[in-house]
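Please, structure for the following, as C-alpha cells.
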Amino acid sequence: MNIIINNSSMIPIYEQIVDQIKNEIISGELQENDILPSVRSLAKTLKISALTVKKAYDQLEDEGFTTTIHGKGTFVKAANKELLLEEQKKDVEVSLEMAIQKGRNYGLDDEQIKMIFNLIMEER
C-alpha cells in the first residue's frame, strides 16, 4: 500500500487516505481479507497523527470497505465495485458542475464550455 499525503491540498488528510485506499481496492491492489497497516504504523510512516489515521479507518469501516477485528487489525472487506465506481462518478459530476458554473460566471456560453471540454478530452 502506497499512500501519498499532499499537505498543501485543500482535501483533509484523512479523506486523502480514504480515497487512496478506496482506489487501491477498485484497482485490485488491495484484495478482500488483505490487512491494512496498523493505525500507529501508518501514522508513523506518513508522519501524521494516529487520530487522523483512525478517523480514515473508521470512515472506511462505516462505508463498508473494511472491518476491524480487535487485537488482529483492519481488513479489506469484499467491495461492491459498482457502488464504489458510482460514488466516484458522482464526485466527477460535482467537479464538472463546478467547472461549468465557473465558465458561466466568466460569461462563457454552453457552446464555448463544450468546446473547452472537447479540447481537453482530445488532449488526453
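The helical segments are 13-27, 39-46, 50-62, 81-105, 110-123. The two ends are 27 Å apart (CA to CA).
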